[in-house]
Amino acid sequence: MAVEVVYLGHDNSIDLLLKEDGVAYSLAQTTQINITVGDVKITSTNRDIDPIKWYRSGYQTGEARFFLGDQDIDPGTYRRAWIVVFDYNHQEGIVWGNIRMTVKAEVEA
User: pLDDT digit string (tens) for 18-40?
Assistant: First the structure.
């Protein structure tokens, strides 16, 4: 499994393509996406302005982008950053899985 990198203070994104049984999962009805990194839970309910974006022009079906550089995450390596997706039919959320992540302190400081 690849390790994703977050650069604090920068606009880099983690781009994921969510699939179910090998087929891209439509995020058209998604109402919220959460990612939990260590003790920090980041919630996005507005796909256009929050730090997690999905179902936007130019995105592939199932694509979600995580812009975490401005979040209050401590630098370090996280073995499991959990992703949960909510929609009208799954109001308790679907645990999509987890990713490995390294968070790096501001590189230009």
Answer: 999 999 999 999 999 999 999 99
CA neighbor of 12 nearest in space, from 46, 59, 44, 51: 51
Residue for token digits 């606009």? 11
The beta-carbon contacts of 57-63 under 8 Å, at least 24 apart in sequence, are 60/17, 60/24, 61/24, 61/25, 61/26, 61/27, 62/17, 62/18, 62/19, 62/24, 62/25, 62/26, 62/27, 63/15, 63/16, 63/17, 63/18, 63/24, 63/27
Structural domains present in the chain: 3-104 (2.60.40.3350)
Q: Name the DSSP letter for residue 68.
A: -
What confidence score (pLDDT) does residue 1 get? 65
Half-sphere exposure of 49 (CA within 13 A, CB side): 1
> Cα–Cα distance between 59 and 36 in angstroms, integer?
23
Q: What is the pTM of this model?
A: 0.94
